[in-house]
Amino acid sequence: MRFLRLFWFQFKLYISNQYFFWLTITSTVSIFVLQYTIAYANHGLNDPMVWIRSAVFGLWASCTTAAGSIGYQRFQGTLPYIINTRYDERASLIALLLPASSYGLLAFPLSFLLAKIFSVATGTIDLKFIGIVILLWIAAATMDILIAAFFTLTPNALVYEALINIPILLLTGLFGNRVISLPLMEVSQYFLPMTMPVRVLLYSGNMTNILAYICSMLIWILLILVMVRKINDLAREKGTLKII
């Protein structure tokens, strides 16, 4: 299948870049160490949130590099050839951006391994947990594609990628105590696809709101179908597919 070949080519190119390769690892490890220190000081090493938060943070940190990968392709001079092909331009763009979220899945086994090494509780890892992680990845990849598409409009994509990291995670309720996070999640789960999986992973006693997940996913998919081609056309008009 042409899309899979294109994705595999872009994935190998993505992990060959040392910045992209190490960012997921360093982001996951650094946030784990920070949370471990706080949990150790408060005798909270029996809380699985320590490693789950670290894994989600590492996944999304990797996703945000999709904006940088656009800048990387522009720097190499290959971005116009990726977008301007007879193959569907949305599929070409997805194949370019999907490696960022796919590589980000490494954050989960890495964070789990750190939890085992430092004797942090990991909770129950069952089929439901794995299924929720897959839903989280699908949500992150979908959001990633739409957000990163806007960065074809600027030659400074790498500079702005940090701006979409923490704000999204705060809106999903990944950080903060239960009293603040749960009311925020009740609202954001209907327009941010990542919220529902994050909520279930962190607060396992909560009901899985599939309706909210589907609703938010449909919103983002519809925006991708409508906006990506228009964004690419605008980028061609502005000449931002090439180095400026």
Automatic annotation (TrEMBL):
Domain of life: Bacteria
Keywords for this protein: Membrane, Transmembrane, Transmembrane helix
TM region positions: 20-38, 50-72, 93-117, 129-151, 158-180, 200-228
Name used for this protein in its record: Multidrug ABC transporter permease
Organism the protein comes from: Lactobacillus gallinarum
